[in-house]
Amino acid sequence: MPAADRAGTEPDVGDVTVADVLAAQARLRRFLPPTPLHHAERFGTWLKLENLQRTGSYKVRGALNALLAGRERGDLRPIICASAGNHAQGVAWAAHRLGVQAITVMPHGAPANKIAGVAHWGATVRQHGESYDDAWAFAVELAQRHDYRFLSAFDDADVIAGQGTVGIELAPHSPDVVIVPIGGGGLASGVALALKSQGVRIVGAQVEGVDSMARAIRGDVRPIAPVPSLADGVRVKIPGFLTRRLCASLLDDVVIVREAELRETLVRLALEENLIAEGAGALALAAGRRVAGRRKFAVVSGGNIDASVLAGLLTDVRPRAPRKPRRRRPETLRTPAMAVAPPALKPASSPSHLHAALPAVEETSP
Questions:
Q1: Which residue ranges does the record assign to the Tryptophan synthase beta chain-like PALP domain (predicted)?
Q2: CATH number of the domain at 60-157, please?
Q3: In angstroms, rounded to a whole number, what is the distance separating the alpha carbons of residues 298 and 283?
Q4: Closest CA to 153 of 103, 220, 83, 104
């Protein structure tokens, strides 16, 4: 079905609730340990490192939960999916782990490292079309023809619930705002379901010209032609129907990032924080400079960047030097005893329970 037809006809894609996210957490905990947190001090943001997840992306959460939930329902059909890369790798790993046959349809031009990652786990790779939507239409056709189970990269209740486990892992650290990248909206929907009832603000991030979800939330559901972008993992012509409803009701804002900002952020992550992220993986952090928050968390959604692309960025992009931190004055600290302590003090403004869960951050002076 072409993207235009999908935009005009809303299928029955089911529903997903907080209970589904909690059920996903119970399924996944024996397969996927929690990913770590890192404090990017120069950005003033905590990072949820899904680039260190199995297969290098959060996508394996939704794929594995969908396969496990399907097995509980007695659905043992082969799995087929369409993906620019990360969902395909997640499906391939989950299918390998559970002994399920998997077929992945990827567009021509998909990153070679992602294609290799899918093949490594034994899934069949079919390349079709020039975009995710072309691959999607072909995968749906094959599913109908051969009675495969088609597994959407984002518009599936089991997939959304699995992605929501990222939010479950963040909850104990008391964030006041969490920033998530948006392509089709599966991650943003799941994280919002997990955290919104706790009063956490959820902010989505998209790239200028690759902002189909932001447009859909405003009521414009026409397919767009995504511009070329470093964030290939979020280049979606039209977001999901289920994810659009969830994002419209649960997101507090969607920040649109310029391509130049995204490129600079990815390079700064590599040079200043020693973290490798793909374009979509750096998107939430790039949006973070426009989001206020005392305990701000950004999801680094993936790290599967092509080596040649990274080398080109490190050669071409020259990030601006970050501002020097302000010198802390003794009178701004809470107690006189803290004023004479060494520079490795925890910030006085941070709550004590957060320090119990997260590593302390050194204070630096210019």
A1: 33-293
A2: 3.40.50.1100
A3: 9
A4: 83
Is 59 considered catalytic here?
Answer: yes
Q: Using the CB atoms, write b or e for 247-285: b if 16+ within 10 Å.
A: beebbebbbbbebebbbbbbbbbbeebebbbbbbbbbbb
Instruction: Tell which residue, 171, 170, 233, 181, has the closest CA to residue 206.
Output: 181
Residue at token pair 């979606």: 236
Angle between helix 307-316 and 259-272 (nearest 10): 100
Under DSSP, the state recorded for 329 is: P
- Active-site choice (59, 114, 196, 237): 59
Select 16-57+159-316's CATH number: 1.10.10.10, 1.10.3720.10, 3.75.10.10, 3.40.50.1100.
Answer: 3.40.50.1100
User: pLDDT tens string for the chain (366 positions)?
Assistant: 444 444 444 444 468 999 999 999 999 999 999 999 999 999 999 999 999 999 999 999 999 999 999 999 999 999 999 998 899 999 999 999 999 999 999 989 888 888 999 999 999 999 999 877 789 999 999 999 999 999 999 999 999 999 999 999 999 999 999 999 999 999 999 999 999 999 999 999 999 999 999 999 999 988 888 888 999 888 888 888 999 999 999 999 999 999 999 999 999 999 999 999 999 999 999 999 999 999 999 999 999 999 999 999 999 988 876 666 666 555 443 444 444 444 443 443 444 443 444 444 444 443
Same fold, 16-57+159-316 and 60-157: yes
Q: Residue 229 catalytic? A: no
**Spatial distance between the Cα atoms of 333 and 141, rounded to a whole number of angstroms:** 64
Query: Where along the chain do its domains lie?
Result: 16-57+159-316, 60-157
* Backbone phi, psi, residue 13, to 5°: -105, 10
**Rounded distance, CA 275 to CA 124, Å?**
31
Structural contact between residues 85 and 119, judged by C-beta atoms closer than 8 angstroms: no
